[in-house]
Amino acid sequence: MSTPYYVSPEQIRQDKEDFVRRGITQAKEVVVLEFRDGLLMVAENPRKTTFKISEIYDRIALAAAGRIAEYEALRVAGIRESEIKGFRYYREDVTAKWLTNLYSQHMGAVAQAWDAKPLEIELLVCEVGTTNAATNSGAQRNQIYHIAFDGIYSEEEKYAVIGGRATTITEILEQNYTDGLEIAAALQLVTETFRTVEADTEDDYEITAETIEVACLEQTAERRKFRRLSTEEVATLF
Amino acid sequence: MLDLNDYGTSDFFQILKRRHPELVAMSNSPDVVSSAHSSASSLRSYEGTTVLAVVYNAGVVMAGDRQATEGYQVGERRIQKVYPVDRHSAIAVAGAAGPCIEMAKLFQVEVEFYEKTEGMSLSLEGQANFLSHLVRSNLGLAMQGLIVLPLFAGYDLKRQRGRIFKYDAVGGRYEEDDYYAIGSGGKDARTTLKKRYTPEITRQDALEIVAEALWDAADEDIATGGPDLIRKIFPTLYTITEEGVAEIPEATVEELYRELISRL
User: Fold this and answer.
1) At a CB cut-off of 8 Å and minimum separation 6, what does B213 contact?
2) Is A11 contained in some domain?
């Protein structure tokens, strides 16, 4: 029997991270930001049926940057686990925090397995709060969780960005974001940011109603808060 | 831990049966059936009764009374028997109240689960067929007296009209073109509907005959609850059209009944 080479845990982790970073830097961005009526999610995505943003449960949506196939499996698993939990207990017992932990455990386990490649995706798990969260103590605030490929997650406020140029976009949003934007203004802020970033790159990706995917979680909606905006609706908001 | 093995199926019922059989009372589990020597109907449980649906020119009206009985006693005065399923369909249930509510809830989750995972709605016909499987899965409990009979109605977007499906206890699925009513007061409600129904009826007329049919059912059948003007409890009415499922506000239903009473 041959003795395996010794590789330090730091080295293994670094290798995996480099591998994922190479993939993620290619990925187009998804932005989630809080607006007056809830959470707005915008992705650069010219495709009409393969989505990067999707509905998970009554108040919860999932957005991803990276490999679509890997995201798809996690999306469906998330819906399934949420529906089972909601059926078993109560619909309000399904929370973004719980779902984030579930994804985090899974992604962490895959990233640490010696015989598996880490998932080349980043996720945003979003949950819309209830109205008057600022004034009513019993009310829930909007929640945004950013999960990295290795399952490590952080809670974000106001806005969050995933994808290759996330840092640049975050910097621009930091300067321009204001609380209580209306949906059209919030969408404009994101598209202007995308345009600024795209102007610096070589491929001329044009930001129009046709080339972005837009969805929102609205506090005022009935039970299912998620709504995907059609191309026509987005064009009207422009 | 997240289990990705169930990826291939959009059938929530199947996943639930495999992963949490304890949550699915209605499966043809042989031990449940054989171990029950005495009929479960000798247990005291709530029974829900009259529900109905009427096709009108823009869709379908679905309604139910609010009473559940426990033998000769009133068990519950405000029970819900009509449940929206997706944007264009609703289910109404009659029979053993507990399993009825469970089936309606499971059916709603099933349809929504399909829609979210597949990215498109399950067709009305597909929903009607699936409900047939659910009713058949309840056969074990039905044999012991815990029968669940649903009435299913919806707006068929492809065919541009309201449709009604009724079921028998073994899962048989039958379509009705104009109206139907089930439950202990179902026969009485059907008699009224038969006399008053005309094809291409308007929304207002449909609401009126539905209110009247439930009134007659409550008049003849002791298990069906009529409008309770003192407690302000009224039957629930829903319309299902191309625009979606809408509950008729309680004030409007009260108005329908005050109008009906003034004509008696």
Assistant:
1) B52, B181, B188, B189, B190, B192, B193, B196
2) no
Please list the active-site residues of B. 49
Nearest to A215 by CA among A194, A229, A230: A229
Picking from A68, A83, A42, A29, the residue whose alpha carbon sits closest to that of residue A201 is A29
Please choose, from the candidates B141, B144, B185, the residue with its C-alpha nearest in 3D space to the C-alpha of residue B42: B144
Question: How many domains is chain A built from?
Answer: 1
Chain B hits for A87, CB-CB cut-off 8 Å, are 16, 23, 105-106, 109
For B60-71, write each residue's pLDDT tens digit.
999 999 999 998
DSSP E strand stretches across chain A: 30-35, 38-44, 53-57, 60-66, 121-127, 143-147, 153-156, 159-162, 212-218, 226-228
Of B7, B16, B109, the CB nearest to A76: B7
Q: pTM for this structure?
A: 0.90
CA distance to partner chain A, nearest, from residue B187 (Å) = 34
Put simply, the answer to whether A79 touches B16 (Cβ < 8 Å) is: no
Q: Is B7 on the interface with A (CB under 8 A)?
A: yes
Kindly list the residues from chain A whose CB atom is less than 8 angstroms away from the CB atom of residue B13.
none
Cα separation, B135 vs B143, whole angstroms: 12
CA distance B23 to chain A (A): 7
> Domain of A75?
28-237
| Predicted complex: ipTM over 0.90 | no
Domains of chain B with CATH codes: 45-263 (3.60.20.10)
